[in-house]
Structure formats: C-alpha cells, structure tokens
Amino acid sequence: MAARQSVRLLIRARWIIPVVPERRIYEDCAIAIQGQEIIAITPWEQAQKQFNAEQTLTLDRHILMPGLINAHGHAAMNLLRGYADDQPLHTWLNEHIWPAESRHVSAEFVEDGTELAIAEMIRSGTTCFADMYFFPEEAAKVARRAHMRAQITFPILDFPTNWGDGPDQYFAKGLALHDDYRGDDLIRIGFGPHAPYTVADEHLKRVAVLAEELEAPIQIHLHETADEVRDSMDIYGKRPIERLAELGLLTPQTQCVHMTQVEDTDAVLLAEFGAHVIHCPQSNLKLASGFCPVAKLRAAGVNVALGTDGAASNNNLDMLEEMHTAALLAKAVAGDAAALSAHQALATATINGARALGIDQVTGSLEVGKSADIIALEVDAVSAQPIHDAASALVYNGRAARVTHSWVAGRALLLSGHLQTLNERDIIARARRWAEIIQNTPREAGAL
Ligand SMILES: CSC[C@H]1O[C@@H](n2cnc3c(O)ncnc32)[C@H](O)[C@@H]1O
Ligand SMILES: [Zn+2]
C-alpha cells in the first residue's frame, strides 16, 4: 500500500460548494489543507486512504464554501450604526454623517470601529473585505492582527478631514502605507478617491497615474444617485463615468461602487475598460439611491461583485443577507425570475469579488492551489430543512447565525462559533463606550 501523504488539516463536509463555473456541488467529500493552501478536494473514502492528517474535522451537518468577499465598506462606521436612519444620501452625508465624523473620527475610533466590524464580518462568513475610510493605517493594522484578508484604500478628497489637511497629505500618507504593506500576503493597499463630486480632475488624474505605476486597485463611489449624474451633466457636460474614462481612471484595476444609474453607454464603457461594479443593494435601498441593473451589466460583460457599504447605511455587514437581497432585487429590476440565480449570486459574493479586487488567483473559490479561505455553515436547523439544493439553501435561506467555522490562509478565525483572533467581550465594551461618547456629544452641524 502506498504511504499516505501528510497534511495539516482535513475537513470532511456534507456539502462543498467550490463556486466554480461548472456549478459543481460535492457531497461527503473532504478538503485537504497543507500550509496555507488547499491541496485536494476529494471523496471522503479516497481522502482517508490518501492522507495522514494532523487534524481531521468532521462537519457532517454543514456546507463548506469559499469565504465571502465584502467588496465595499467603511468598517469603522460600525460605530455609527443606527446613528442617522431614514435619510436620503445627500442629507445623510451632509447633515449627519460628515458632521459626526468631524467630531469623532480619530485613530482610536477607527481601530475600535474596524475591530467591531471585523468581528461581525467573521461571524457572518466574510473572510476578505474592501475598506475605504480615514486612518487606513489603523484599519490595516487591525485586519492584520485579526488575520483577515483585506483591500484597504486610503481616502482622497478635496477637503481637509481629521486624517489630514488635503489631497497632498492624503497622497503622501497613503503612498507610505502602500510601501509598508508591499508584499504582504493578506493586506493590499489601494486608492480610494471618494467620488467624482468630491475629487477634482487634477487629483483623479494623479490617482490614475500612480495606480497604474504601482499596479494598485482604485475604489470609487460612482453613479450612486440620479442627482450625482444630473449635477455632473450641469457642471461638466458629461456623465461621471465619462469624466473618469477621459481622466484615465477607468481600468481593470477600478472598482465602481453602486452604479444605480446605468445607460447602455455606461455599461459599454465599463465593459470596454474592464472596470468592475460593486453592487451594494441594501445601502441603495435604505438611502433610496436607486437600483443597480445587475442583469444588464452582466449581459454587457461587466464583472459584478457585492458589498454591504458601511453599517451606518445598511445597517449590518451580513453578506448572506446581501446576497439574498441582490438575488431578489436583480429579478425585480430585470422583470425576470431567472436573473441572478443562486449560483450567480454566490459568485458575486465570492469569485467575482476576488476578480474585482485582483486576487482571483489566490482566493474566491475552493480550488487546488488556492488559499484555504473557507467557511462552514451548519444547516440542520428546522428553518433550513429540507435541503434539496445547497446553493439555494445559502442564497435564499442563509443565516449568519449558522456560520460556525472560518479559515483565512489556513488559519482558523472561527471554530465552533468561537472567535479565535479577536476578544469579543473587549470589542463590545469599547463599542459601548463609543456609544456613550457619541450620544453625549451635542449634534451640531459642521463640515467634515
Ligand atoms: C473617503 S472615506 C469614506 C467616506 O465615505 C462616506 N460614505 C459612506 N457611505 C457612503 C456612500 O454610500 N456614498 C458616499 N459616501 C459614503 C463616509 O462617511 C466617509 O466620509
Ligand atoms: Zn460606501
């Protein structure tokens, strides 16, 4: 008999959804992990003969799938969850959120808020997130500590904020941060020009040049509302996306967040330049911003990924919920029940997110040679029975509370419902302290 191959971890599961184009679902199979990588996905019978595992985990009431990728958010805004509900975007930002950020945002706020967000994300199955916020050095530090995979984009705006006195300082600090994380296996630093209406041409051009030079990602809020497009037509005589294309900002490294306003010409531009769309359906619904036409974009050949946006406009970071909403909304918007099927919705929250972030060679699906970024959901609850189709069970009936295990690059972040890299009690205590501070500070109007 041939000697068995030594592996660090063997995870046996009832179902494995690898999220590959063939829409395959494995039953009673195992994933073998050596170091940080998946080295095999094989029937359990075979795995027992083939591998000698240091540790074997049997998850026989579970679905295993790639960790979810939250492709857009503002993690520290978890501390502003429920702070300003039921407002449209413009009022929400100008009269509530920006004044609150000018009063409270600091390195400590971002450290505590980001840690709270990461704990919530791990508990709801996210293993990789894209963040755009002030004090990005704090977000990067916390993500590294928690062993989460992350794209951290540093903000560029035309005006001063608590993080710096204007674009020159934002570029200087952001580029230094990019240097600090060069070669990091989990954290990637990119550019976060906030939106076409808050960043002048001069600075957008500078982002385009530097991002190309550094091969760094760019994330920008784009076509979030009809007002944004109308104002751009009034000021520049062109749609925001046309302006970005002319400035060299539309590239395969560009992630366009929201895109609720899409003419046929916009879809053609996105597809031609290979830019990605990050769809945030719950935030768009709550702020009444509009509906991203996912089926139309997909038909044009645009990669559509999924994000929650910040907890101040969502009000959670639950990607299972987001997938469900995305699938339902796509059908309603297209008038087609087949729009964004369960498998397609799973792809938006995994492999499409990896593609948008430029890390699809590393993560986003369960395949041999990819990083072991994996989650497990226990699906034997009454509310989950019976299971005819594991993909349907996740998208149309998923629950964050069913997420039991999570690994990033083979390291456990959640085991049997217990966080492994974070101190949950301490995180909650700090969030409560911030709630007291925020509630005891008068809400005066003020610019950011
Ligand atoms: C440049 S740091 C991020 C900045 O963006 C604000 N923000 C949060 N959500 C949205 C959104 O949906 N559209 C536009 N801006 C948003 C956040 O409060 C920060 O100030
Ligand atoms: Zn946002």
Please outline the major beta sheet: 8 strands, mixed
Mean pLDDT: 97
Structural class: alpha/beta
What's the gyration radius in Å?
Answer: 21 Å
Q: Based on the structure, what is the oligomeric state of the protein chains? A: single chain
Q: Uncertain segments of ≥5 residues (pLDDT<50)?
A: none
Alpha plus pi helix count: 16
Ligands (ions, cofactors included): the ligand CSC[C@H]1O[C@@H](n2cnc3c(O)ncnc32)[C@H](O)[C@@H]1O, zinc ion
Strand portion, in percent?
Answer: 15-25%
C-alpha geometry? globular
Could you give the count of β-strands? 16
Gap from first CA to last CA: 70 Å
Strands side by side in the biggest sheet: 3-2-1-4-13-14-15-16
How much helical structure, as a percent, in the residues? 25-40%
Tell me about this structure.
With 448 residues, the protein is of the alpha/beta class. 38% of the residues lie in helices and 24% in strands. The protein has 16 helices and 16 strands. It has helices spanning 44-50, 89-104, 107-123, 136-146, 167-180, 201-214, 226-236, 240-246, 264-273, 281-286, 294-299, 319-334, 342-348, 351-356, 390-395, 424-439, and strands at residues 5-16, 26-34, 37-43, 51-66, 68-73, 126-132, 149-156, 187-193, 218-222, 254-258, 276-279, 304-306, 374-378, 403-408, 411-415, 418-419. Strands 3-2-1-4-13-14-15-16 form an 8-stranded mixed β-sheet, covered by helices on one side. The protein has a 4-stranded parallel β-sheet with strand order 5-6-7-8. A 4-stranded parallel β-sheet has the order 9-10-11-12. Helix 3 packs parallel to helix 4, helix 3 packs across helix 16 and helix 12 (319-334) crosses helix 13 (342-348). It is globular. The model has no long low-confidence stretch (mean pLDDT 97). Zinc ion binds next to loops. Residues 63-412 form the Amidohydrolase-related domain. InterPro entries: Amidohydro-rel, Deaminase_MtaD/DadD, Metal-dep_hydrolase_composite, Metal_Hydrolase, MTA/SAH_deaminase.
